[in-house]
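F.,

This is the one I mentioned.
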């Protein structure tokens, strides 16, 4: 997946936006004010850090070489997914959706309802 396609997917859920809080080459995608994805665009292939349930993270890492502990992130709660073409695109979309939902789940019930994720 190319960066432009990935960016469109990451910006499609409710109230998502793109920021560059660290530098000019590390896009961070947030829902409301909380990060759910971070992309390393200076790497070839691209990689993306996504929030993940700790139990699922262990399973995913054992099944897919392209899924690793989160680079510069909490290794229990974040995975780095290398976009080398080895993952089914549907799995990548699910991982992105899971990350978004995990972050929204930490928000107030009112905010979850506003975002359409309960």
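My design for it:
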């Amino acid at each position: 997946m190319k960066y432009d396609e990935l960016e469109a997917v990451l910006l499609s859920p409710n109230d998502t936006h793109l920021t560059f809080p660290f530098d000019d080459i590390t896009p961070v995608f947030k829902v409301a004010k909380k990060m759910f994805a971070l992309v390393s665009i200076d790497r070839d292939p691209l990689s993306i850090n996504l929030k993940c349930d700790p139990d699922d993270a262990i399973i995913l890492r054992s099944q897919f070489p392209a899924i690793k502990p989160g680079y510069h992130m909490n290794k229990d709660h974040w995975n780095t997914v290398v976009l080398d073409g080895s993952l089914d695109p549907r799995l990548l979309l699910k991982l992105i959706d899971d990350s978004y939902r995990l972050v929204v789940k930490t928000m107030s019930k009112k905010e979850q309802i506003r975002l359409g994720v309960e």
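The first helix runs from residue 3 to 10.

Talk soon.
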